[in-house]
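Protocol step 4 of 6: record predicted structures for both targets in the notebook before any analysis. Target 1:
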Amino acid sequence: MTTRTLRRLPAAVLRFLFFALPLLFLAAFFFYPLANILGLSLSVDAVSRFLQRPYYRDVLWFTVWQAALSTLLTLLVGLPAAYLFARYSFPGKGLLRALTTVPFVMPTVVVATAFRALLGPTGPLNSALQALLGLDAPPLRLEQTLTIILIAHVFYNVTIVVRIVGGFWASLNPRLGEAASVLGASPLRTFTTVTLPLLRPPLIAAALLIYLFTFTSFGVILLLGGPGFSTLETEIYRQYVTFLRPDVAAVLSLLQILLTFGLMLLYTRWQQRSAAPLDFRPQEENAFPPQTALQRLAVALLVAFLLVFLLAPLLALVARSFTGRQGFTLAYYRALPELERGSITFVPPLTAVRNSVGYALLTVVSASLLGLISAWLLTAARRARDWLDPLFMLPLGASAVTLGFGYVVTYDELRTSPLLVLIAHTLVAFPFVVRTVLPVLQGIRPSLREAAAVLGASPGRVWLEVDLPIVGRALLVAAVFAFTVSMGEFGATSFIVRPNSGYLTVPIAITRYLGVPGDLNFGQAVAMSTILMAVSTAGFLAIERFRFADVGEF
């Protein structure tokens, strides 16, 4: 071995370790916890206990059919909206389209709190009906009912239909339907025989994605459904936290993993089919102002419905945070820096806000670093891309609840420090960074790197002076994604943070305040939810402002 080779050896080892960092991270904090769940679930006692109790089969059945019903209702609401955006142009269309996306970026605890503020006994809807009908009691009792769960799921996921189906629909040549109409087909027959078959791939892809999200719904079921409703997600949490049965929770987690990975596989296949519509045309060429009075009326009614449906919960949340028993008040916000006697959070609510911001900033650094390395590795290692790409996306197929459970089983000694929370947030945000940065890196022309190399630049200098400046804007979007995801993360953190820990986050603090009766407790929960909503909305606006128009998958 020559002296020159020996000198290069440490650099090669360091380069290998650098690019192996994402794989080592996934091995330690994704696969290893899941392996421990698998080992725990294979206990004979746990399996027999699961099989002998019909209750667990009921939980599985409820998880399946509520997700199916939520998906159906979301499609019924979303398809008219998708058609509206695909075929009509009207003032404020871009703003309304952005508004449909805002609920999707909201943390689940914010959505749950917003619907409790809107539809609760003291909410504006019940108050208006009481005043209008002269009633002494609220006429609507929607808390802890299936109805409010379904409404929240539709609210949360309607943008999926608008984005996936509406985007595909907008690219279809409208002359296909016009030709059928000329041949005598009715509008209904034209839709069923021409449009619907073309929409089948994106429609199925959207339905599978909605089903996956509602199947793994945690915060909405836990906070809006209460103890009367339980899915696999909430039951995993209750079996471990409430009943101290980690073996049963492991069996449920294994079942959850198998089903969600299966759904992810189906979604990936149908999503690829919906990527290129037949007879593709630019979307702006297919949208026209409504021509007839009936069209104008239909567009106006649909726009009004979307505005009310999307804005009412969020506006009710903000209004409730400034409304006390005596009217307008700032008491709930003024109470955030204080620790009330007998508080269940053990720290002032404002401390939870500071903790969440700190976690989010650290998550930006860690997730951006790991995601950037992974994206660069996917770009450079073309032969390994076929197995590396799905490997990096696996955290998206595992629910945050399952990850949190795996962490407390594997790294319980770390629950006394905030490190485990940071690791969980990084893992959840990591795939979003990869999918945001990767398309930009893949779009860099190889000739730019080759020219820099010819001029004597080392690989590291090529990366710093060619790749990084080009990918900087996408990296900024990815950083905002990581920050927003971390601020709203609830599933994994609910397992990791101990009840008396000083490291609790805003979603955990909101949940605890919602679980305790009292006007001040609910008011502080609403105030913190409003702050979290403002942060999430600002993050979304930043993403829409800085992202490349057609680059990135989120």
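Target 2:
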Amino acid sequence: MSDSIRPRALLSVFDKSGIVEFATKLSQMGFELVSTGGTARVLSQAGLEVIGVSDVTGHPEIFDGRVKSLHPAIHGPLLARLETEKDRLGLSELNYPPIQIVACNLYPFSDAANQEPKLQDSDLLEMIDIGGPTMVRASAKNHRNVVIVCNPSNYDEVISKIQQSNGVENLDLSFRQKLALEAFEHTAAYDSAISDELHARWVGRPEEFNDKEQQSLRLPSTLLNSAYLSHTLRYGENSHQAAALYIDPKELGKQSTLVTAKVEGGKDMSYNNYSDADATLRLCRSLSTDEWPETPHACVIVKHNNPCGAALGATQVEAYQMALASDPESAFGSIICFNEPLEEETASAMEPLFIEVLMAPDYNGKSKEIIMKKKNRRVLTIKSPNNRLAPLQRILVKKPVEGGWIVQTEEPPIIDWTKAEVPTKKQPTEQEIASMKFAVRVCEQVKSNAIVMVQGTATVGIGPGQTSRVEAVRIAARRAGEKAQGCVLASDAFFPFKDGLEQAADAGAAAIVQPGGSIRDHEVIDAADERGISMLFTGHRLFRH
């Protein structure tokens, strides 16, 4: 190859931040600039000399730009193994100058998929880049000879490394590998976004269907996970564990989810903070519906992934006070969520309590200032339509297990109360049924085995995560104390024996709601009749393991 042939830098980027500065420095280093479409126009307008891809290939773009860079004149230099004499001579014989640097990042397909109104399939398919991913993958594969840069934040470092190494040829292999890995991650995320959207359009998402069989038919044949690193966290479940927060690409730019929420105050969030906050937000969304118009204000208090208090109130401060009264001891160092903007009165009422994280759609008046007076309180803003948390939606959840993943649909309990059965002689009152509906909604978010005692629309005792249902009743009763008298009790699964019901009766429960379905249901029903307790069977189990 002639010494007069200048090496080339191929530049084709959707995200054009920093590209002019990067190209300028490359040009000053002696690189010829080869570019396509919009990138070429930006560089030319900046006064840089640019060679079009069509000039390199000797072939015009065809099919409205569908084919432009897919040509040996581009991919020969990208894939030539210059460390081998055969490839080096072959490139020289073809008179193809080497391409030593490629800057390429792809159109964010998720943005196109999320457009409103929805793009037609034919228009969406046109947003799938072919040449770009091919250039990225080819460059990454041949990273020993080609430096691939997908992230504009790396431009300055690339220039600095080239200068320090006295030429791109001398760049350290580990640095090349780092950039190549980022490139493969970039194309993998891109392909994942495409397959996810097309699966949703052509097959359907499991969570969009009510029927279990229909959900099963729409589970993906290949489970793909793609998310962008937001930032590292203080630590994991324990201080010796590393942790990080990743964001679903579909949620980038939003503040309506937990991971995209605005975080203010205190020290950085930890893995546990986010895990507990997720459980808190999930229950608060579950209660943020129009089912309780007289008590629209929801407050949820969570500790170690389990609710220690939840309430609906006519006012926000009432909801908070009732939720706190459920278990004020456990509320120390808790996560709290409100379904509507925090009011100054509520903030003042919360001031004495040690709170790890507070969440709300917004903060009225001086409420945020009041809350953040105390050190290390984190305040999260969950942006919501009309400043009210949206109800909980059915989602597909994935859990890692040894060797793979288990996947299921998850949703708030959808119970047809008109079909609920009262097997006991005593009928529950309308007020008790209203409390049952609230208790069931809370119980669904408590770790199994779970027992929830409520008065009205406020928890008074919660027994979470026990290996014995009887023990869960004991814990809930102990926390409720005198407030257990006349309470409504919800169980996440049936009572396998009458001893659990007897324990509930001894504590003071007046009405019980449970799925039913035990082979010993008759024993439990008889025990309820003996104690003068009304009971309702929902036929809907609420395990949360």
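Step 5 preliminary note on target 2. DSSP finds 19 helices and 20 strands in the chain. The chain has a mean pLDDT of 93.
Proceed to step 6 after PI sign-off.
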